[in-house]
Amino acid sequence: MSQLEPLIANLALILICAGAMTLLFKQLKQPVVLGYIVAGFLASPNNSNRKR
C-alpha cells in the first residue's frame, strides 16, 4: 500500500493542473487542448524538483 499514496497525489496534481489550465485557456479563448499540453508539462517529472 505504500505505492498507492504517491499515485493518488500525482493523479490529484495532474487533475488540478488540467482543471486550472482549462479555466485559463477558456478565458483566453484558446483551444483547451493547448491547456492540457501546458498542464502536462507543468506536472511532468522533468519540471518538478529540478536540481542543478
Shape: elongated
Q: Uncertain spans, ≥5 residues at pLDDT below 50?
A: none
Task: Work out the number of β strands.
Answer: 0
Number of helices: 2
Alpha carbon gyration radius: 13 Å
Beginning-to-end CA distance, first to last residue: 32 Å
Furnish the topology, listing elements before pairings.
Elements: H1 4-27, H2 32-43
Features of this protein?
52 residues, mainly alpha, 2 helices, 0% strand
Describe the overall structure.
With 52 residues, the chain is an all-alpha fold. The chain has two helices and no strands. It is elongated, with a radius of gyration of 13 Å. The model has no long low-confidence stretch (mean pLDDT 84).
Short description:
This protein has helices at residues 4-27, 32-43.
